[in-house]
Design a protein that fits this description.
The chain is mainly alpha-helical and 68 residues long. It has 2 helices and no strands. α1 packs antiparallel against α2. The longest helix has 14 residues. The radius of gyration is 25 Å and the shape is flat.
């Protein structure tokens, strides 16, 4: 059996005002499972890696001494 999406779960279970605690628990897990971060595939031997990008230097906050 396929896991329902949060929208499908809401459509079947109706108004949230009538849900029981277990309905909220199930719904919470369905929503969390939508946002699972999956790891990127590992490069294989011979694959070219993308060029490394260095971040832009951070701006230094102005200090009172700079105004003098």
């Amino acid at each position: 059996m396929a896991t329902p999406t949060p929208a499908q779960f809401r459509a079947v279970h109706g108004d949230m005002g009538r849900w029981q605690a277990v309905d909220f628990e199930v719904y919470e897990h369905l929503v969390e499972n939508q946002y699972v971060v999956r790891p990127l595939p590992r490069p294989e031997a011979g694959d070219r890696l993308p060029p490394r990008r260095t971040p832009a230097p951070a701006a230094r906050p102005a200090s009172p001494q700079d105004k003098a």
